[in-house]
Amino acid sequence: MIGRLLKKRSEDVGCTVEVSNTFDSLHAHVRFDGGVTVEPGDEVLVHGAPVEVPYGETACIRRRATIRRAGWLERAWTRATGDFEFMELCEFSFSERATL
Fold this sequence. Notes:
- This protein is 23% helix and 37% strand.
- The mean pLDDT is 83.
- It has one domain.
- Strand 1 and strand 2 form a beta hairpin.
- The protein is an alpha+beta fold and 100 residues long.
- A 4-stranded antiparallel β-sheet has the order 2-1-4-3, with no helix packed on it.
């Protein structure tokens, strides 16, 4: 019973990695083939060499990705604690002047 709650399954899917390194945008997105989505607690490993895009350029690269699906217990834990982890990334300031 416990093993089934913790068991993880994996699937390999094709994906497109889009990377932009321009003045207007610095981002990287992964889009999975066939409408595959990831859920809280899932882990994604994109295979292949690191993508390096020179400043001022964008690139779209085809790759394979392995998605390791979270078990029921891990998914529930991630949903329950995710907001707290997000707050660690935020920085708040209540001072009257901004300093750099």
